[in-house]
Amino acid sequence: MAVNTARLTSQAIDAYLRKLSEPVMVNARLLGILKAKGRISFNHDEHEILWRVRYVRNEPTSNPGFPTDVTFNAPVRITSAKLPWRSYAMGEYIHKIEKLQGRSDRTQFPRLVENVVKWAMDDFQWYMQRVLYNDGDADPMSLHGLESMFAVGGEISGQPVYAPNDNYAGLSTVLGAFGGDVISGSFPTGQMDPQYRAWSPIVVNYTHTAFKTGSEESNWQNNWKKATRFARTWLLAGQGIDPDIMVMHPDLERQARDSTDPYAQLQVTAKSPIVDLGIKTLLFEGLELVSDAFCPADTAYLLPSAKMELLSMQGQLVAFNKTTDVYQADMLLFDFYGNMKFDSPAYFAKLRK
């Protein structure tokens, strides 16, 4: 019986590679941002991802002089947030006959190994880039991506935002879940105790009429500048956080380019760690805009890169191991052990319909 090769011979692969193109490959934008900003860390060995969250502030009182009258108390200011580790794995193989058919210098069998590894790494990276947007609470096997903290209820009366209604790292994002009160107004523009909004992100409805001008349609193309400024303003006013990156679906970037006006021009970013890595960005009032094909449609995120981190339990993001079975086929295993961590949902904003 003839022995058949499951895939191309290494001779054919070698010839094919000379004119190879990869139309299916999409740049890993969000992974690139994390790498450029130094927000990927390795060799973690904790039982779980655990960090302490301070959600209450103490407050001094005026001191009338002598005798000093001070109240001493021990307020509970800290709670713990925790996430589990997640794992992904992928396998490849090279059959013995593939190795036997390409041993001469002319056919360069090592290229087969190189490219099987290269393609597998690219495929793994492509998949990792997508799950960075996942909801890790909705899927108990998924990495805790951006959508793990942005579930909402209805709109808050009188505000162009939705009411946060999620659970991230074991803690509720609902307003007031940590206690505290609203002093005046409403979230996010009103005055309130710090703990009232301590774990609550800002989710802006960019089609809200609050951003509407005249008779123009209330949509992303017409409203994105005002909606972005609104989210940045109240992240800064509420948490002292000024995001440095806005990641959006490519179609939203296209509409943003089409909507430039004399007061808000988009410029190509000349110099930044992200640009140095080869990812082109636009600049809007000091905020780098990045389009990402993996970003959910009709969605943009305001990200303070210093408050997010991709953690790996291994010495590299995707580890590679090779073994040979009894049939002398090479078995290639690629795996990831880690998770995504955001210091607090309250440091982030999402813009959606």
Task: Write structural notes for this entry.
The chain has helices at about 10-15, 30-35, 95-100, 110-130, 220-240, 250-260, 275; strands at about 40, 50-55, 80-85, 85-95, 150-155, 160-165, 165-170, 170, 180-185, 190, 200-205, 245-250, 265-270, 280-285, 285-290, 300-305, 310, 320-325, 330-340, 350. It is α+β, with helices and mostly antiparallel strands and about 350 residues long. The longest helix has 22 residues, at about 110-130. The protein starts with 9 loop residues before the first helix and ends with a strand. Residues about 15-25 have low confidence and may be disordered.
List the helices and strands in order: HHEEEEHHEEEEEEEHEHEHEEEEEEE
Radius of gyration: 25 Å
- Residue-averaged pLDDT: 86
Spatial order of the strands forming the largest sheet: 5-6-11-20-16-12-15-14-13
Low-pLDDT stretches are 13-25
Shape: globular
| Helix/sheet category | alpha+beta
Q: Percent range for helical residues?
A: 10-25%
β-strand number: 20
* Tally of alpha and pi helices: 7
Q: How much of the residues is beta strand, in percent?
A: 25-35%
**What is the CA-CA span between the terminal residues?**
62 Å
Q: Largest sheet, described in full? A: 9 strands, mixed
Instruction: Specify the oligomeric state.
Output: single chain
